[in-house]
Amino acid sequence: MKKKIVILGSTGSVGSKTFEIFKKDKKNFKVVLLSTYSNVNKIIKQAKILNVKNIIINNNDAYVRAKKKYKNSKIKLFNEFKVINKLYKSKEIHYAMVSVSGLAGLNPTMLLAKYTKNLAIVNKESLICGWDLIKKNLIKNNTNFVPIDSEHYSIFNLMKGHSYTDIKKIYITASGGPFLNYPKKKFKSIKPKNALKHPNWKMGKKITIDSSTLMNKVFEVIEAKNLFNLSYKKISVLTHPNSYIHAVVQFKNGIIKFLIHEPDMKIPIYNSIYYNLRMKTKDLNLKIINNPLLKKIDENKFPSVKLLKYLPNYNSLYETALISINDFFVYKFLENKISFEKLMKLILKTSNLKEFTRYKKIRPKRIEDIYNLSNYVSFKLSKLSI
């Protein structure tokens, strides 16, 4: 019997790569559900290729148009993730990928834990804001969890055979984005089109901007702290322009392990599905290994990393405020309403306002706590005069 697969966010970067893997293995797997926010044309093509019967379209306008256009199709269209409760029975799904963008990924992450044996998550926001809730849900439903971000998947692999107490230090790497070697005095002239030119990765606009400010590394450190039960003191970030070394784990017994692979998300995705099955890859790049250019981050150039010094060592609602603040100003930058320099300054300044730092003392107890705070932060920021 073919194993059932769910891919949420199938039209995005990671979702598309996941789709391509299962597209080549129709013998062993059957994709039963796909989702997109609004890319209807692409998801319909995907559904026809793999004969997927169920699709979720989260954007209401796109859903209404698609419902009308494909009313005679055998494909069933839905508008909300809660339909998952009606479509599946306990542990019916073998593998589910959640690559939905933003906090919208938290609800389906919680829902799928009940129905899938293996839950792969690339949604940073869920793992940052709702890890305590997700972890309890995974344990309750006996669901195997696999982080897909290259840095966290690398740590996950390097940790095999070790416990968290064996760790002395973890280093995650950052490409540095397009402005690693860019003079700080020229930051004032940076436009969105410049920030969207990532040197190594093809990603969505939002995460590409986060990479250019290094906010994505702030989020990945929080993620690592959550997933591997570490204090922030045990996690550092090193710039590595080639994105070839993804993580370094230093153990208390003197052993230091590196995990290396080409900057291609298909590698961690493939290995989360097949584990030890061989895939075609390039040979070891000795040129990079002999000169990895690992360096500490210049905090004056990328001030966002300073936020890590003031974060609580437990999951709090402040992380939701931080995510929401960053989202708000990133989209203002993409709309050309603020400069790149102002983007970084506003994120840092706003994140330190008492209005939001008070949430460091409050832990999320329900999904609604996270969504309500995110809406509240967005509302407060919309009233600001920028």
Topology readout:
Blueprint: E1 3-8, H1 13-23, E2 29-36, H2 40-50, E3 54-57, H3 60-69, E4 76-78, H4 84-87, E5 93-98, H5 106-112, E6 116-121, H6 124-129, H7 131-140, E7 144-147, H8 150-158, E8 167-174, H9 192-195, H10 205-213, H11 215-227, E9 235-239, E10 245-251, E11 256-260, H12 266-274, H13 286-290, E12 295-296, H14 318-334, H15 340-351, H16 354-357, H17 367-382
Parallel strand pairs: 1-2, 1-5, 2-3, 3-4, 5-6, 6-7, 8-9
Antiparallel strand pairs: 8-10, 9-12, 10-11
Helix pairs in contact: 10-14, 14-15, 14-17
Number of domains: 3
Secondary-structure-based class equals: alpha/beta
Q: Biggest sheet, strands in spatial order?
A: 4-3-2-1-5-6-7
First and last CA, distance: 58 Å
Rg from alpha-carbon coordinates: 21 Å
What are the secondary-structure elements, in order, as H or E? EHEHEHEHEHEHHEHEHHHEEEHHEHHHH
The assembly state of the depicted protein chains is single chain
The helix content, as a percent range, equals: 40-55%
Based on CA inertia axes, which overall geometry fits? globular
Can you tell me the residue ranges where pLDDT is under 50 for at least 5 consecutive residues? none
In what range is the share of β-strand residues? 15-25%
What's the helix count?
A: 17
Count the strands? 12
